[in-house]
Write a structure and sequence with these properties.
By secondary structure, this protein is an alpha/beta fold. Helix content is 24%, strand content 36%. The protein contains 2 helices and 7 strands, in the order βββαβββαβ. A 4-stranded parallel β-sheet has the order 1-4-6-7, with helices on one face. The protein has a 3-stranded antiparallel β-sheet with strand order 2-3-5. It is globular. It starts with a strand and ends with a strand. The mean pLDDT is 97.
Amino acid sequence: HIDTLFLGTNAIDLERGLSTPNLEMANVKMKMIQNSRHKILLADSSKIGRVSLARFAMLEQIDTLITDDGAEPAFLAALQQMDVEVCTG
């Protein structure tokens, strides 16, 4: 079991969630999320609004997103509505 998980993603979409082009990596990330208490996603704004081959989580499963200042305010507000803490900088 993992207390605090830090993970990245290739793509973030409000409807599709978190995805990656690698099926094996998606499976590993899915298991890590399932076995973690606190989940922190690290992703720059270029990943936002993108979809890749294999979904490994929905955004509601993430506790915190750490991203850069380039993230769209509307996207960040939507995450906050899902009770995802957002940190930019």
